[in-house]
Design brief:
By secondary structure, the chain is an alpha/beta fold. It has three domains: 3-244, Aminohydrolase, N-terminal nucleophile (Ntn) domain (Glutamine Phosphoribosylpyrophosphate, subunit 1, domain 1, 4-Layer Sandwich); 248-451, Rossmann fold; 453-599, Glucose-6-phosphate isomerase like protein, domain 1 (Rossmann fold, 3-Layer(aba) Sandwich). It is 35% helix and 22% strand. The strands form four sheets. Strands 3-2-4-1-10-9-11-15 form an eight-stranded antiparallel sheet, covered by helices on one side. Strands 5-6-7-8-12-13-14 form a seven-stranded antiparallel sheet, with helices on one face. It is globular, with a radius of gyration of 26 Å. Bound molecules: 6-O-phosphono-alpha-D-glucopyranose. 6-O-phosphono-alpha-D-glucopyranose (G6P) is lined by residues 304-307, 351-353, 356, 359, 402, 404, 605, 607-609.
Length: 612
């Protein structure tokens, strides 16, 4: 969703900010803007992409060593030039960029209007700019103090950066609910909504906590205080992120790069955590909570989107191997339906970004009822891992493509290790089975490599089906969540309507859709309910549907029925999703490219959904 980057130092700010905005593009946005101070304040903003902003600002004054930039994903007000950030105060001297939502903006706005303020946008953010100006004038205080007082009046979530033409040596950032990180360089500072715009300038960062304000003045050390006026000592951490992870590295799109990274990202997820010899499939971060997990009445997995699909695979794994009951919940539903949660429950929150608002709210709810909260997140230092009792990072590396690929397989890898370890320690799987699964898991990265070899064939299949208007994805058992994920990938990036279903459920509705125009993707790997899936394939074939089947290598039965088969290596049934997801990622990728879609930044979607 919205992205923030700001700079104060000795260099010209504009190139740093534009580069930073490009780095933030992956989050999803529909307008962009920039503010620079060099004697006077210049604000340039427009609907569209960062490239449109660059074009717009081409012949304008872009000088200044203090500035900030923003990418906006519309919430209050349409995506247009007026609603784009930065927003300025009534006197045009103070300007602000904002991620999040000010819930009480309406009464604040009415109050300001009655005091003569006139607004030029529909946003909640503009209200905050005016409020800060109003406070500064009434209280006769400096900008930092006005920001602090204003934030005490605000209800909602925010990450803001504020600068003022009257105080041109100062950058102010503050956050609550939305993430904010400060980069500390040599005589220069950066503020951003995540570390991606900062990493090429400095690896020293400070993550702000909720209700903290960073006050950055030229020639001074970074100061942090709370909105209650308590001074805090900045805790400087070193970023682990590598710059190469943010570049396409020769691939046409980030999504393709990330699909191809999976042999390595899965290995990174397992690194140091898996050892068949020592009977180890443990997750260090959970060691102290193992007993409580083993004694749990039930696990509740909360997540959204692709992470929810990983959670469904987790349900199959944990129930199968550790015999602990598991429920998988959409975080957005869970938080609003008065769920029954007890102290004997373990809640597992899965989130790539670690920032998803609904998942965060579900965690807070479960925490208040005494459940143990475990996080499975990718972005190090993000909000969810800092809110949970314990957890495991997936270590998949930055995922820039909006459609999640390598994060999914890494989440499933963590869940697999968790289930194997719980099963062994609970005695629900034998030592021999344990060894077998650990061994096989170790072999998965090279099997993913083999699955990727079908790329050209998948590209060919994509060329035949790129104009389809609907797709059906069917699978059973461990492959049912994979069917859902395959359908989600296709609709996210190609805008083709796609549905995932448990194959047997097809008879209860979707079968009515099947005719010679309808491509049906079956995930029909050996084991599990293979024979049943074969019957389902027959049912589609009888109705002339076009069958694309993902099969285990060497399969001849499905081959004789399907229009196209894509082979993946054989593996243990429990590990199949780690392989069967791969061809589906490639299929949606190629279809989207052939349809001319913006694969990495699909319309309307955001990488981290920080609003509910
Ligand atoms: C958005 C993204 C999806 C992601 C979902 C959950 O919709 O576009 O790719 O699966 O949010 O995000 P999370 O960061 O919590 O995994």
């Amino acid at each position: 969703m919205c992205g923030i980057v700001a700079y104060i130092g000795k260099k010209e700010a504009y190139p740093i900010l534009i580069k930073g905005l490009h780095r933030l593009e992956y989050r999803g946005y529909d307008s962009a803007g920039i503010a620079l101070i060099n004697g006077k304040l210049n604000v340039y903003k427009c609907k569209g992409k960062v490239a449109d902003l660059e074009n717009f600002a081409k012949d304008k004054d872009k000088s200044g060593t203090l500035g900030m930039g923003h990418t906006r994903w519309a919430t209050h007000g349409a995506p247009n030039d007026a609603n784009a950030h930065p927003h300025v105060s009534q006197d045009g001297k103070i300007t602000i960029i904002h991620n999040g939502i000010i819930e009480n903006y309406h009464p604040l706005k009415e109050g300001l209007k009655s005091r003569g303020h006139v607004f030029t946008s529909d946003t909640d953010t503009e209200v905050l700019a005016h409020l800060i100006e109003d406070i500064q004038k009434n209280e006769n205080c400096d900008l930092a103090e006005a920001v602090r007082i204003a934030l005490n009046e605000v209800i909602g979530a925010y990450a803001i950066v504020v600068i003022s033409q009257e105080e041109p040596n100062q950058l102010i950032g503050a956050k609550k609910g939305s993430p904010m990180v400060v980069g500390v360089g040599d005589d220069e500072f950066f503020i951003a909504s995540d570390a991606t715009p900062i990493v090429e300038h400095t690896k020293n960062v400070v993550y702000l906590e909720d209700e903290e304000i960073a006050i950055i003045r030229r020639g001074e050390e970074l100061k942090i205080k709370t909105i209650k006026n308590k001074n805090k000592t900045p805790y400087v951490q070193e970023l682990e992120m590598q710059l190469e992870a943010l570049e396409k590295g020769g691939y046409e799109h980030f999504m393709l790069k990330e699909i191809y990274e999976q042999p390595r990202s899965i290995k990174d997820t397992m690194r140091g955590r898996l050892d068949e010899e020592k009977l180890k499939a443990g997750l260090g971060g959970l060691r102290n909570y193992q007993q409580r997990m083993l004694n749990a009445d039930r696990f509740i997995i909360v997540a959204c989107g692709t992470s929810w699909h990983a959670g469904l695979v987790g349900e199959y794994l944990i129930e199968d191997l550790a015999r602990i009951p598991v429920e998988v919940e959409y975080a957005s539903e869970f938080r609003y339906r008065n769920p029954i949660i007890t102290e004997k429950d373990v809640v597992i929150a899965i989130s790539q970004s670690g920032e998803t608002a609904d998942t965060l709210a579900a965690i807070e709810l479960a925490k208040s009822k005494g459940a143990l909260i475990i996080g499975i997140c990718n972005v190090v230092g993000s909000t969810i891992p800092r809110t949970t009792h314990a957890g495991s990072y997936t270590h998949a590396g930055p995922e820039i493509g909006v459609a999640s690929t390598k994060a999914f397989t890494s989440q499933v890898t963590v869940l697999t290790m968790m289930a194997i370890s719980l099963g062994y320690n609970k005695g629900t799987i034998t030592e021999a089975r344990y060894r077998q699964l650990v061994n096989e898991l170790e072999a998965i990265p090279s099997k993913v490599e083999m699955a990727l070899k079908a790329n050209d064939q998948i590209k060919y299949i994509a060329s035949l089906f790129k104009d389809a208007r609907n797709f059906l994805y069917l699978g059973r058992g461990y492959n049912f969540p994979v069917a859902l994920e395959g359908a989600l990938k296709l609709k996210e990036i190609s805008y083709i309507h796609a549905e995932g279903y448990p194959a047997a459920e097809m008879k209860h509705g979707p079968i009515a859709l099947i005719d010679e125009e309808m491509p049906v993707v079956f995930i029909a790997t050996k084991k599990g309910a293979y024979e049943k899936v074969v019957s389902n394939i027959q049912e589609v074939k009888a109705r002339k549907g076009k069958i694309i089947a993902i099969v285990t290598e060497g399969d001849t039965t499905v081959k004789s029925m399907a229009d196209f088969v894509i082979e993946i290596p054989d593996t243990e049934e429990e590990l199949v999703p780690l392989l069967s997801a791969i061809p589906l990622q490639l299929l949606s990728y190629h279809i989207a490219v052939m349809r001319g879609c913006n694969v990495d930044q699909p319309r309307n979607l955001a990488k981290a959904v920080t609003v509910e």
